[in-house]
Write a structure and sequence with these properties.
The protein has twelve helices and twelve strands. The chain has 447 residues and is an alpha+beta fold.
């Protein structure tokens, strides 16, 4: 295809790099400008604000929903006389529909009450059979309508980012097409556009407005006040009316250990550190290609990709231009992915991070997701377990990858050394245990 003003391949590549670099720089500046402010608790206070317990839970937990929204709402409904709590022989408390008809409830509170009352048999709610996950959006909408939350990128910012991404992608695809005349090279622009749009989607999140920051910092001050009263922390749900609405708000902020009504899940766990109970959130890995892998395994994975990608780049040739170019694109991706794995693995070899604390939970990694036969393939499944250790420093914990062997048990105090990127535990020492009664001189376990 003839061109009146063709450009060289080098010029087209330079234009592509400059266009994408300008967009990435602009994106980084936008992220820095709209970054979430760190919440600083106000002085301890017993004064409550008008927000519902569900909204308070979102405010103090960076708008991450969980079972604590429902539990806090149930306790608040009990304090207002719409529900009743009675101890049972199992040690837990049953939830009964109250005699008073609910009125003046927020949308989320009303939906929770309707869901609970709808599950009741003989006036007793069947919480273990009730699903609340689909109600969380209602609480998030309440926070937004109250002016307490907003999206990180407003519609103007998001529109400019999208327009810039389209321009950068058009520059990449257009310059490559102009230099080569191959229509297939326009797909490079499409791939760049998809990648940049993915970055925009990854950076978009719900965060506090200025009013939300003020409210959240006030509620963190209320949490400090509540944590100073041990009797309040351990009081059961039957004390909801005596504490009026404080018990519901305490549950919203992860304070009321004794008033737990719902069985927690692996993402929301009670932790006891230095004589104080608190609820912590556990982050589990999303990308499993590197999680729990040893350094030799990661390098082997990288070598496999480099070899396969190099073979495609060197030997993948067909009469069909389309088939050849598709193979070259796949080969380039594999080589880049292999190089990335090598570089990140080498960076991960820096001195490991050390954590000392109590074992909260141990779970099998993705049980039932893979078969034993996969160990025969090039892509091996690491034999690890999720290990959650609480050092008392944060309310957000990481699930580390513990290689199979002699596992510690929940309640034991351990010291672990971990690789932050792969999350693999490379050393574990038993410090103290209420189960094994081990001494602090126990020999370390290595994996």
């Amino acid at each position: 295809m003839p061109f009146n003003h063709p450009v060289s391949r080098e010029t087209s590549i330079n234009l592509s790099v400059i266009a994408v670099a300008i967009w990435l720089l602009s994106y980084a500046m936008v992220l820095a400008y709209f970054r979430q402010r760190t919440l600083k608790p106000d002085p301890a206070t017993e004064d409550l604000r008008e927000e519902s317990p569900a909204v308070v839970s979102l405010l103090v937990n960076n708008f991450e929903p969980g079972l604590d929204l429902v539990e806090a709402t149930l306790l608040d409904l009990g304090a207002r006389g719409f529900l009743e709590f009675r101890p049972s022989e199992s040690g837990r408390h049953t939830v009964h529909i109250g005699k008073e008809f609910p009125s003046g409830l927020s949308a989320f509170d009303q939906q929770v009450f309707d869901r609970v009352s709808g599950s009741a048999i003989g006036g007793v709610a069947q919480l273990e059979r009730t699903v609340f996950d689909d109600l969380y959006r209602t609480a998030q909408r309440e926070a937004r309508e109250a002016g307490l939350s907003q999206l990180r990128f407003d519609w103007r910012t998001q529109s400019w980012l999208i327009v810039g991404a389209v321009a950068a992608a058009a520059t990449v695809g257009g310059s490559l097409f102009w230099a080569s005349g191959l229509v297939l090279h326009l797909t490079a622009g499409v791939l760049v556009l998809l990648a940049l749009l993915g970055l925009i989607a990854a950076g978009q999140r719900v965060q506090h407005t200025p009013a939300g920051i003020t409210a959240a910092q006030h509620w963190l001050g209320v949490r400090q006040f509540m944590r100073g009263h041990s009797s309040f922390v351990e009081d059961p749900p039957t004390a909801a009316k005596r504490w009026e609405r404080y018990l519901g708000y305490g549950a919203a902020m992860g304070v009321t250990h004794g008033a737990s009504l719902l069985a927690g899940d692996r993402h929301l766990i009670w932790a006891h550190h230095d004589g104080r109970w608190r609820r912590v959130r556990v982050e589990y890995p999303r990308g499993w290609d590197r999680y729990g892998r040893s350094v030799p395994d990661l390098l082997r994975q990288a070598g496999t990709r480099l070899a396969a990608g190099g073979a495609l780049l060197l030997f993948w040739r067909f009469e069909s231009t389309v088939a050849t170019n598709l193979g070259l694109v796949a080969g380039a991706y594999l080589v880049l992915r292999g190089l990335y794995l090598v570089i990140r693995t080498l960076i991960d070899l820096t001195p490991p991070r050390t954590i000392a604390g109590e074992v909260l939970r141990i779970d099998a990694w993705r049980p039932g997701r893979f078969s034993v036969r996969q160990d025969l393939y090039v892509w091996r499944v690491p034999h690890v377990a999720y290990l959650v250790v609480d050092d008392g420093e944060s309310d957000r914990l990481t699930a580390w990858a513990l290689p199979k062997g002699k596992f510690p048990e929940p309640g034991m105090r351990v010291r672990i050394a971990v690789r932050p990127w792969s999350r693999r535990v490379i050393q574990l020492a038993l410090v103290e245990s209420t189960v094994w009664h081990s001494s602090s001189s126990a020999a370390p376990w290595r994996g």
